[in-house]
Write a structure and sequence with these properties.
The complex is a heterotrimer of chains A (333), B (285) and C (332). Chain A is of the alpha/beta class and 333 residues long. In chain A, helix 8 links the parallel strand 7 and strand 8. Chain A starts with 5 loop residues before the first strand and ends with a strand. Among the domains of chain B are: 26 residues, no CATH class; 147 residues, no CATH class. By secondary structure, chain C is α/β, with parallel strands linked by helices. Chain C has eleven helices and twelve strands. An eight-stranded mixed beta sheet of chain C has the order 6-7-8-3-9-10-12-11, sandwiched between helices. In chain C, a hairpin with a 2-residue loop joins strand 1 and strand 2. The chains are: A alpha/beta (333), B mainly alpha (285), C alpha/beta (332). Chains A and C meet through helix 7, helix 8, helix 9 and helix 11 of A and helix 5, helix 6, helix 7, helix 8 and helix 9 of C.
């Protein structure tokens, strides 16, 4: 099945972890039947938003093929990523799809100079042969993130700030000229005063360099600020996916509504009024039959506890909620 | 190198003590090259003389000057300990790094071999080897055998360290920088593993030198080569304590105690110095 | 006076590793007064000294951290008490009973192999004798009930509970003795937004019920906007602005505060936001004069040479900036 139109197609992927021994162990579905596509015509920033334990990091690692799928398939420009076996194919894939990690202080070995990673990337992907030309490649990459080789050369990670390190991390990822970046919580460890500069950098990369970005975050405010589309994840499921203005401004799924309401706002007079229901025991939600949110949902119905809701297509987005079953018969899946 | 020693010498009391003791012992053992007596000959001097200006450590019942005899014994024991420790370090680094980084089936095979070595009782095995080789047993052969028996715990330690390093983000950065597994292991992980290697090196030296003493005292090592152990063996053979020739036993015990304490302190301070956390603090992080 | 008065506090980290001497001036001249029965927010970036400040306030000063000067005076209704001059056992007496701490990773105070109620019992027994077990259990259930926590958590092991529930249990634990001051250092940073909301609401509930003072430290201005009465903004070991929450959010005077608030994105607003230029200073070698001057867009000559004093400009609104002190000086 070849689909050349799409940059990335993620087709009904599922990841089940087995925890514990043979007899006493349990199975945990970290990612459940997730489906989405990213077009190659226009670069976009696609946000995966969710709380801890929602499976967003697992999903990122699946797309990067760091861990094996349980079932489903992932196509990058028509090539099945899950069949990559040898190093050559792996290198070709990594050249196109690069990650950016959460903690800039952990991204680089504290005992090594940060520029060694930039040079290694340039040489290993054959972008530069060696010597002078490598300096040029590395400098270009650093300049595209607002730094220069002069500032970074010979520096150890502890000599740079979190914001600078995260820029270096982006610069490194850009050296093989990828078309997709997967950034897992790239600003959560960066200081508040520097955070927006990194977020703006992603926006700029999309607009000027045409790089698509999967932005993984729990922070809905920055998600709204930079992304084109967003998927809200809950316990391995996409509960709502669509254009960010739609999903966050007029959320349909009860979980999205509560999530959005709970984001504190840095303005006066917007304090929370009603009290919130929290899950006492986390493991129960994963094992729950039917909708994972049924235990906390204010508009819960009987069916929610029995049956997993389908994805309903309405108002430019998909919503995985029984509330919309009656109104709209045109369900997909 | 020199600045490191100077740095440590100035700021660490343990290092200062250990450094002086070990340099002293090394000088002492290298005096063996200037010994007026052959290490194997006996009755060169009057027997059973107590320590004096002429015979610093006294003389033995076999008419040997214990001072010069000990220079050979310490030299051989030190070389024995160092070679055992180095050889077993090589094995444990190789096994630990490979098992840790590669994982999977290779890891499982290596670790089952590793665990077999951990549970093998070593002393009976060494006694068995002595019966097999009999006269052919030399100090070097013994060191080789002990190196082959003494790596397993440390390999496991190194493996567990690498397993945790593998989960750290910078390993993934290295992978996505296109680095292959061998360079990742050597360049990214080895610097974190080195403190363990140093720390286990001291243990291994102490362990092997101690075990050599046990074997020699039982007469199960190459008793014709002077070492700390064989010196005690010969002293016992001549019932030195009963005969009142206490200095024959006192000399090897005193020097080896000093050596062991010195080695322990040296590695304790080095270990702290090369620990990545201290390294970072030194660099000003 | 208020419940807590800090006078010109200076606390440095002094390390000496193989001759490499370093002095990190984590707190460099902080003076602040905190009133009773208020939620006092302290905001700032990482390594601005806010966590060190909390360590000193709770009396947990251990080398390499050294208090170089200043006083931390508490007033629990019986005269003022300098926490820095207390002996270990005196400190133990007031800790948890008068001052209690809730930290970011404070879930670790729960013993993983003991049920929650046993941890509670151990904790209470360390401070006072438990006469009757039945009474104690009823008290604990009441306490949890008041905080809106389900009573079955008492019989659970910590690993049974979700992260948010664990954090709320530690808050319950820290407030058993109705402490006068609660120091909460990034209590919700590792938590999800929904859980964060639950935890913050719980803190507010406690404050209403027990009438204590909460010192809340977080880098998240939005959290402060939701629960703090007053906010102090820290930058590089000093307080640069302090005022009522509303004034900080809407009428801030210090350029750093203004930048910080302007850079925050909000749902429903896609307008361009920019970060403060430059990088946070290294406290081992801080800039001269006003520590914000290398990043400040309105920098003047005096800023590079002199440290601006924290002066009162309005209704309990204090700011340390020459832009403001000049104006008010001219006005007089």
């Amino acid at each position: 099945m070849v689909n050349n139109e799409k940059l990335l197609s993620v087709k009904d992927i599922t990841k089940v972890f087995s925890i514990g021994g043979l007899l006493t162990g349990t199975r945990l579905t970290a990612v459940n039947e997730v489906y989405f596509e990213m077009g190659s015509a226009n670069p976009e920033i696609f946000t995966l938003a969710g709380e801890s334990g929602s499976g967003k990091t697992t999903l990122a690692r699946l797309i990067l093929h760091d861990i094996e799928l349980t079932h489903g398939s992932i196509f990058y420009r028509g090539t099945d990523v899950t069949t990559i076996r040898n190093r050559k194919e792996r290198m070709r894939f990594m050249e196109r799809v690069q990650p950016i990690f959460q903690n800039p202080f952990e991204t680089f070995n504290p005992l090594k100079r940060v520029d060694t990673y930039l040079y290694a990337t340039a040489v290993n992907y054959g972008i530069a042969k060696s010597g002078e030309s490598t300096d040029g490649v590395v400098d270009d990459a650093l300049r595209s993130v607002g730094l220069s080789l002069q500032e970074v050369r010979g520096r150890y990670p502890h000599e740079l700030s979190g914001g600078q390190l995260q820029r270096v991390s982006v610069a490194r990822a850009l050296i093989p000229r990828p078309s997709l970046l997967i950034a897992d919580e790239p600003v959560s460890m960066v200081d508040a005063s520097l955070r927006m500069s990194i977020v703006n950098l992603f926006k700029e990369l999309k607009e000027k360099s045409g790089v698509s970005i999967i932005y993984i975050t729990h922070d809905l405010a920055t998600a709204y600020y930079i992304s084109d589309r967003i998927a809200i994840m809950l316990r391995g499921n996409f509960v709502e996916m669509g254009p960010v203005e739609k999903v966050l401004s007029e959320p349909l799924h009860p979980y999205t509504k509560i999530l959005k309401e709970s984001v504190p706002k840095p303005v006066l007079g917007e304090k929370w009024k009603d009290k919130i229901e929290l899950s006492t025991l986390e493991a129960k939600e994963f094992a729950r039959v039917g909708c994972k949110f049924a235990g906390r949902c204010p508009s819960v119905m009987d069916i929610c506890k029995k049956e997993d809701p389908k994805n309903f297509l309405l108002d430019e987005r998909t919503v995985k909620c029984h509330l919309y079953a009656k109104q709209f018969k045109n369900s997909i899946l | 190198m020199i600045s490191t020693i100077k740095n440590l010498y100035e700021h660490d009391r343990r290092f200062r003590f250990a450094f002086i003791v070990i340099i002293g012992i090394i000088i002492f053992s290298s005096l063996s090259f200037f010994s007026p007596y052959d290490p194997d000959s006996s009755y060169d001097v009057p027997s059973d003389q107590s320590p004096s200006i002429k015979y610093f450590f006294g003389t033995s019942s076999r008419g040997q000057d214990i001072f010069w005899k000990m220079t050979f014994a310490i030299r051989n024991s030190l070389l024995f300990g160092i070679s055992t420790a180095l050889l077993s370090r090589i094995i444990s680094i190789l096994v630990g790094l490979t098992a840790g980084y590669k994982g999977g089936i290779g890891d499982r095979i290596l670790m089952s071999i590793n665990d077999s070595f951990i549970v093998i009782p070593i002393l009976p095995l060494l006694i068995l080897f002595n019966f097999i080789f009999q006269e052919k047993m030399s100090l070097f052969l013994l060191s080789l055998i002990m190196a082959c028996l003494g790596w397993a715990w440390d390999a496991r330690l190194i493996r567990s360290q690498v397993l945790s390093l593998k989960e750290r983000e910078f390993t993934r950065t290295a992978v996505y920088s296109g680095m292959k597994s061998l360079p990742i292991t050597l360049k990214e992980h080895l610097p974190f593993v080195m403190p363990i290697v140093f720390a286990t090196m001291i243990n291994n030296m102490l362990w092997s030198m101690g075990l050599e003493v046990s074997l020699a005292v039982l007469g199960l090592s190459d008793i014709n080569t002077p070492t700390i152990g064989t010196t005690i063996y010969w002293a016992n053979q001549h019932q030195a304590l009963v005969a009142g020739v206490w200095w024959w036993i006192a000399a090897p015990i005193a020097i080896s105690t000093l050596l062991f304490i010195g080695l322990y302190l040296l590695f304790a301070s080095l270990n702290q110095y090369i620990d990545p956390r201290t390294r970072l603090l030194r660099m000003g992080g | 006076m208020g419940i807590l008065k800090v006078e010109n506090l200076k606390a440095y980290y002094m390390t000496d590793v193989y001759g490499t001497k370093r002095t990190v001036r984590a707190i460099d001249g902080i003076s602040v007064e905190i009133k009773e029965n208020e939620i006092f927010g302290i905001a700032g970036e990482s390594s601005c000294g806010k966590t060190t400040f909390m360590k000193v306030l709770s009396g947990a000063v251990k080398p390499p951290l050294t208090v170089v000067g200043g006083k931390v005076l508490y007033n629990f209704g019986n005269g003022s008490l300098d926490i820095l001059s207390l002996q270990k056992d005196e400190l133990r007496k007031i800790r948890w009973k008068s001052i209690s701490c809730i930290l970011q990773g404070s879930m670790s105070v729960l013993n993983p192999v003991r049920k929650i109620y046993k941890t509670f019992r151990d904790f209470v027994e360390a401070h006072q004798k438990i006469e009757k077990k039945g009474d104690f259990m009823r008290q604990m259930r009441d306490h949890l009930g008041k905080l809106g926590l389900p009573r079955e958590v008492l019989k659970a092991y910590p690993h049974h509970l979700s992260g948010g529930m664990k954090q709320r249990v530690t808050i319950a634990l820290a407030t058993i003795f109705k402490p006068s001051v609660i120091i909460a250092d990034e209590p919700t940073t590792a938590l999800d937004v929904i859980v964060q909301r639950g935890v913050l609401q719980l803190l507010k509930e406690i404050q209403k019920e027990q009438k204590n003072t909460i010192i809340l430290v977080t880098h998240d201005m939005a959290v402060h906007a939701n629960i703090a009465d007053r906010i102090a903004i820290m930058y590089a070991g000093r307080i640069v602005e302090e005022a009522k929450a509303g004034d900080i959010l809407e009428n801030s005077l210090h350029p750093y505060t203004q930048h910080l608030i302007d850079s925050l994105p909000m749902i429903g607003d896609k307008s361009h936001r920019v970060s403060i230029p430059g990088v946070p200073p290294n406290l081992a070698n801080p800039p001269s004069g006003c520590r914000f001057h290398p990043r400040c867009s309105s920098v003047m000559g005096i800023c590079r040479e002199e440290v601006p004093p924290l002066i009162e400009v309005g209704d309990r609104h204090k700011v340390a900036c020459f832009l403001v002190s000049k104006e008010s000086g001219d006005g007089k």
